[in-house]
Amino acid sequence: MPITAHPAFNKACSYLKIKLRRIPLNPQTHEVDLTKMRRAITKNTCLLVASAPCFPHGAIDPIEDIAKLAVQYNVPLHVDACLGGFLIAFMERAGFPLKPFDFRVEGVTSISCDTHKYGFAPKGTSVILYRNENLRQHQFFALADWPGGIYGSPSIAGSRSGYLIACCWATLMTYGMEGYVETTRKIVQTARAIAQGWSEIDGLYLLHQPDVCVVAISSDKFNIYYLFDALHAKGWHLIGLQNPPGVHIAVTQIHTQEGVVEQLLEDTRQCVTEILQSNNKKDTVTAVIYGTNQKVPDKSLICDMTKLYISTWYDTNLDTSKDQNVPHVEMTAE
Ligand SMILES: Cc1ncc(COP(=O)(O)O)c(C=O)c1O
For the chain, which domains are there? Predict the structure, then answer.
């Protein structure tokens, strides 16, 4: 899979003991290096992955090209449309045509799509689509001789909430085709306006032309994490990227409201001016964290610290009121 594919794949491979090969991007095109991807395929390869779009830079992988490899080497191809599935499906109708990314492309065998992102449904109902029933059959599990009766289960998660599924269905019906086309139009327009505005600010450049809803930038004039922290202080909660360093915004309905883009661009211009005037010498929290991360050659240390941090969410013995150094974190789904 391209290195930009979501860590959910690393996690699945870790659970299932599957060796994962991450293919770097071509530094010129910022697309996955197809020659390297081809070379990574062996007789043991069980799946290729493409994102539509990927989380870090918002780029849609060259799905038709990757699908050609899938067909040539007879390997299934999964398209991860978790992030933008409920946008890319409506982009053509919204006036932003895309290259084919789905089962129209020979070689694409499965697609995942998050209903809770641009489908606006509650979390816990995302879907996976298969090209045919044969493939889907492998997901189903059945046990005939259990004393509790004949057991059958369609998904990795066992018990699932009918309440959430009903809420998801209600959301889909409420928005309907017209609703999703309209939200897609506004979100993609907004993403492009932000990209245009950011790319006009001296010192900033786009990591990729936004294909869908994510706009990612970096800087050749200052440490981009300074901008991350400066915008955070103004109330903009963006995402910090690494390898290469960057910052992105995933545009949602909130950003499509009147005046929001203008405010973001104005705040960005102000922050960039201040950073350049401060002579690029601010020690901000995010710059220090990512700077330290880069200096630690053994990344397992960072992973251990991350796991330790997660365990504090569950540790009921911690009295955080007494110890100011223990971070209090709201548990999130991601
Ligand atoms: C591109 C992409 N793929 C997959 C996922 C889903 O990961 P998970 O199933 O672990 O929530 C996300 C969630 O943010 C995503 O952005």
Answer: 7-166 (3.40.640.10)
